[in-house]
Prior knowledge:
Layout: E1 4-6, E2 17-19, H1 22-36, H2 44-50, H3 55-66, H4 70-88, H5 93-99, H6 105-116, H7 120-129, H8 139-146
Antiparallel strand pairs: 1-2
Helix pairs in contact: 2-3
Amino acid sequence: MLSTPTQPPSGANVARVVRIDAASRRMLRARDKMDRSYDKPLDVAALAQVALTSEAHFIRTFKETFGETPHRYLQRRRLERAMALLRESERPVTEICLDVGFTSLGSFSRTFTHVIGMSPTAYREAWRTGAGTAGYVPTCVVMSWTRPMGEPQDSSFGEADRNGSP
Length: 166
């Protein structure tokens, strides 16, 4: 839904042009709003208004476009930011929880543990004793490796798994 490539005339030495339709542009605006305001309370109604659609249509179209629901996307963005703060600072877990947009330490810890596989405190400790002492690792590698993963069937991007197989 995001792009419809157009074919250049046969024999032409022209790069392919990708066009983004208006509905996809509106979904991108809503996702950008989520990226900018992940630390604030966001509801589907406000995001649907940014995308100029009804709430039900927004949820359905967002999932078709990006491969995950708006709630799951926002949750993932918040967890990614929390992981970075846990790695890079000594701030208390409660403070990090509130700064990334969660309103309850219990729901933050439960969600973090479910998605990452360990508690926020254990993640910080593992980072300090393991990866943190391994020397410099480029940020893009850290982001890719530590990105919270959903169930394999949730991804529609065709990414290879961590073992390198498609």
